[in-house]
């Protein structure tokens, strides 16, 4: 199942599907890199799509789907947020809420994300930093908290290759 099919399987998400990175705010599109842009299939602004139906749920910002260099359908999630240690707990909570929502209402997208994580042996949840200094150091309590939750980052760019 590809990203478009996985998103379309959920009536809550289907209306938010956009080609390429068009679902991302213009200022956020430059944070995503992929060698061959033709492999980038679709994106979804989760926050904008779900705010009307799930106002109390903490939504992750974006989901993106692409074909890996080996041709496998893949997806990941990105949160664009200032990178300070107090935000780590917030992001872990947002991820937990989003995963619970996906379990109830977006099973196909959740499955595609799980398959991507297993195939790549890497997290599919990414924190993209928006502020000048990244105030979370490797080995810090916040970095350990993020790693335990399966969140990559904070980092400046997300490379989908």
Explained architecture:
By secondary structure, the chain is an alpha/beta fold. It has one domain (about 5-160). The chain is about 35% helix and about 25% strand. The protein is built from six helices and eight strands. β4 (about 60-65) and β5 (about 75-80) form a beta hairpin. The protein is globular and about 40 Å long.
Helical proportion? Answer: 25-40%
Our Rg estimate from Cα atoms comes to: 15 Å
How many helical elements?
6
Mean pLDDT: 89
For the biggest sheet, the summary is:
6 strands, mixed
Task: Report strand order across the widest sheet.
Answer: 1-3-4-5-6-7
Q: Unreliable runs, pLDDT <50, ≥5 residues?
A: none
Percent range for β-strand residues: 15-25%
Distance between the termini: 19 Å
Structural class: alpha/beta
Number of domains: 1
Topology order in helix (H) and strand (E) letters: HEHEEHEEHHEHEE
Shape: globular
What's the β-strand tally? 8
């Amino acid at each position: 199942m590809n990203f478009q099919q996985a998103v379309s399987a959920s009536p809550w998400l289907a209306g938010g599907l956009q080609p390429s990175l068009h679902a991302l705010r213009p200022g956020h599109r430059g944070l995503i890199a992929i060698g061959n842009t033709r492999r980038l299939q679709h994106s979804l602004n989760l926050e904008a799509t779900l705010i009307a139906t799930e106002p109390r749920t903490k939504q992750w910002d974006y989901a993106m789907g692409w074909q890996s260099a080996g041709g496998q359908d893949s997806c990941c999630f990105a949160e664009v947020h200032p990178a300070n240690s107090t935000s780590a707990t917030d992001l872990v909570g947002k991820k937990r809420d989003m995963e619970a929502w996906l379990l109830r209402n977006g099973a196909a997208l959740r499955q595609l994300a799980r398959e991507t994580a297993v195939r790549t042996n890497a997290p599919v949840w990414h924190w993209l930093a928006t502020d000048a200094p990244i105030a979370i150091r490797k080995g810090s309590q916040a970095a350990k908290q993020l790693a335990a939750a399966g969140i990559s980052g904070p980092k400046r760019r997300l490379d989908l290759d």
